[in-house]
Amino acid sequence: MNEIIIVADLGHMKAFKMTRNPLGLESPKIELIRSCAFIEAHAKSSDKFSDSAGRYYVGSGKKGTGAGFGEPHNIESEAEKRFITQFAEDIKTLILKEGCEKWYFAADSGINGRIMEKLDSSIKAKLKKNIIANLTKATKPKILSRFA
User: 93: closest CA among 118, 114, 113?
Assistant: First the structure.
């Protein structure tokens, strides 16, 4: 029986394959099968957009010309929406590729529900446990203790 544990935060995703002893003599074991970091999620806006395009000049500041900034147009929230959609697509691909019969998920409260909304009902039907917690930096034994 193929079982996968997926843990995520905004910028990281890790997937573990869970192996159970068929006789139940040993506790389950997990093995990291995928780890990805979305570096853009942690980058500052000033690192992404460093030129002065979109700036307008106002009558303040030194010598009467201060440079203001154009409207931010929710750049951060749009990037976050893209990451949520990407997470959902990655989860779907992984579940289908591994042929999972069961899977487990953990993500912090800020993204957990939004990722779940983006998943197909066939993928959600295989979900056995969903935890609202950031376990991306947790050790394997701690992750396993939350799901096994």
Answer: 118
Tens-digit pLDDT profile for residues 69-117 = 555 557 667 888 888 999 999 999 999 999 999 999 999 999 999 999 9
CA–CA separation, 138 vs 27, rounded Å?
18
Contacts of 28 (CB under 8 A, 6+ apart): 18, 19, 20, 21, 144, 148
At 20-42, the pLDDT tens digits run: 888 777 889 999 999 988 765 44
% of the chain beyond a pLDDT of 70: 74
Cα distances from 129 to residues 92, 125, 134, 143, in angstroms, run 16, 11, 14, 12
Name the pTM for this structure.
Answer: 0.76
Locate tokens 């953990």: which residue?
A: 106
Q: Alpha carbon of 77 to those of 61, 84, 107: distances in Å?
A: 30, 10, 18
Residues 35, 18: contact at Cβ < 8 Å? no
For tokens 């909304």, the residue is 117
Domains and CATH numbers, the chain: 3-42+54-147 (3.30.420.60)
